[in-house]
Request: fold
Amino acid sequence: MSWQRLGSVCGRNSMVDEVVLKNATETAWTVYRARHPEVDAHDSRRCLLERHLNGRSGVRESDTEELTGLGIAYVQRLPRDEC
Reply:
């Protein structure tokens, strides 16, 4: 699925720079899936992760590393059986 298509599926309404959001989301999701290879690339947690990061208005828009760290922590807390 393309990034543009995934963005429309997730219903994003950008509060942070789209490139920063894309990079942070991709990195956090890649780290999560490396730790959990049984998770499908298009799992619903991917959209939840992106929405969470997009809503982080307190984070500096240019801080990809901070958003990535927040994203990894967030997706790790999501219940596996409810997504």
